[in-house]
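pinned: reference chain
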Amino acid sequence: MKSDMVVTDVSEINVAQRVRFDRLKFASKGGSFRYFLLRLILSIFVCSAASLPAGADQTASTPLAMTRAQAYAEAKALAAIGARLFRDPRLSGSRQIACTTCHDPTHAFAPANKLAVQLGGSDLHRPGLRAVPSLRYLQAVPQFSEHFFDSEDEADESVDNGPTGGLTWDGRVDSKAAQAEIPLLSDFEMGNRTADDVVDTATQAGYVTELAGILGGDIRRDRQAAFNGILAALQAYQEDPVIFFPYGSKYDAYLAGKAQLTDQEQRGLSAFTDEAKGNCASCHIAARARDGTAPQFTDYGLIAIGVPRNKAIPADADPAYFDLGLCGPLRTDFKTDPDYCGMFRTPSLRNVATRHVFFHNGVIHSLHDAVAFYATRDSDPGRWYPRRADGSVNKFDDLPAAYRANLNSDPPFDNVPPVRARLSATEIDDIVAFLGTLTDGYRPVP
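pinned: its structure tokens
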């Protein structure tokens, strides 16, 4: 692609529908990634322009020609505004919490504390329903699909992988802009009552004027366009590869031939990928794709594994309440489909060693125990689940019996008698050591 390439067709800008393959290419190989980024950002804004009143001036907000240099400069400017928005507590109803409050840059954009759920809302006393995930390595997550097929460059394209993709634990949105809207308007997160509240704050802080200089003057007159511009800026910031997907771990250096794993780390990798042992790589893919792209350590699939109920979550005090993931309560389009109940999206394991809580409800508080749960869920359920009055184990206490057929039983799970643990205590330790190599910021010893 030449540096003076010009985009002349607005329809070409709408690349939000690109398949994961294209996004992986841009994310891991650089090149024209930033040009792709601006086209992706503009797709959000162009879509909002379609809803402008008849006769409204759309020329400023739908550029018909742009050089690559211009695209780069505007993407950089938009991302800079997004970075400031991300850190600004004025965008919350309480004026006390920012995106960084829950997505701490020093903790891989996940919480710095050990709480299963975070407190938010206009009074900072409303608890969330799920553990806050990391915002790193989301650039290649495909749009949600009930029937996902890999590209030929990644795996066997004939295999239906089932429900896959989408952002958040239940995959209910498909872009970082749409994801950013969720906490801004959630009554237990940033606590704004309406999008207008966010626009009013952003206008008073000068952000809307700055955005108008990039996206066009219409956003100062159209409040929905202004809100979309704010979301576009937050997305632009999160598309910065240096910050959000640097591929800077020891394992990346190992794959590049620039580092060696210790004996324990190597044993852990072997147990991680062994289908008869950890079998972790069946969902948390550890090998490069066929086209050479770096592993994301997730297949983006939604899966039910039946973690224990977390009594530390206030919502769980109600015995009638269940977080069923794909079929509710936060996602509503599959609430009548029992085949999806209990399924949550498989997160990337990159930077997993920096986390303090694990799984969608934060019920596990150490990486060692998270691995051990997989190894002993079926062989030693009493270690994880409460007991009933008669002393029996109340296994899968956070998933109604009607949906337990959805539970995954592939290794290392094992529900076929005689049930046995597939990983020894030493192998669990080895896998934990290997997972430590997935933390960004690795610096080779001279």
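why pinned: Confidence is low (pLDDT under 50) at residues 1-36, 44-64. The first helix runs from residue 10 to 13.
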